[in-house]
Specification:
mainly alpha, 78% helix, globular
Length: 209
């Protein structure tokens, strides 16, 4: 019971911290007269954080009510993969680029690119689903990243704006964009395997005990 209460509070706390960062970011950009809604919500970081924070709050409510489900477990797994992808891609491809924080406030950058991804990962490892998630089934988590890349490239071609430099073929060339995209896809696939593998390891340990 104690662990349940702590985990519920943990999810609500970080859910609120993340949403406050998003609200602060929007308010600041609007105040500066630079808010373009479609562009803002076209960042993978923003979309993944909104998804992750929503799942944190929903899973907190489900835990408090004892109504956890396999569907929610799948959503938590997807959220974990997306947020770990956020922190890895930001560190490897964006953090060394001038002005690459992609946020108006440094603290928001820290929250959205580091704190929330780590919090989501810790949440997953602290409350691994009872029912193992098969890797084949977990591959459905790739649909969102793939759709995101397609959306970014198609929209960018028509409006001349890309959310990230590594997705901009006018600067990087289509070959390099393709190589980077494939590398990220393979990395995401590896993460999916690891996240789903953890659920199977737990089952094996419970049998041994």
């Amino acid at each position: 019971m104690r662990k349940k209460q702590i985990l519920t509070g943990y999810r609500i706390l970080f859910g609120l911290v993340g949403f406050s960062a998003l609200v602060t970011e929007v308010a600041t950009i609007v105040e500066r007269g630079r808010f373009v809604p479609v562009n803002f919500f076209s960042y993978f970081t923003i979309e993944s954080n909104i998804f992750a924070l929503t799942i944190l709050i929903l899973s907190a409510l489900a835990l408090a009510q004892g109504k956890e489900s396999n569907r929610l477990a799948m959503l938590r797994g997807a959220s974990t993969v997306y947020m770990v992808t956020v922190i890895i891609v930001f560190d490897l491809l964006l953090s060394n680029i001038e002005g690459a924080s992609l946020t108006a406030i440094p603290w928001d950058n820290t929250v959205l690119h580091y704190i929330i991804p780590v919090a989501v990962l810790v949440d997953w490892l602290s409350d691994i689903p009872r029912t193992p998630i098969v890797f084949r089934r977990a591959l459905i988590w790739l649909l969102f990243p793939l759709a995101y890349v397609a959306y970014s490239l198609i929209r960018g071609h028509f409006v001349g704006w890309y959310p990230y430099p590594f997705l901009n073929p006018t600067e990087q060339g289509y070959v390099l964009v393709a190589v980077i995209t494939i590398a990220i896809g393979l990395g995401a696939t590896a993460l999916i395997w690891l996240v789903s593998w953890v659920t199977r390891i737990k089952k094996v340990k419970s049998k041994l005990i």
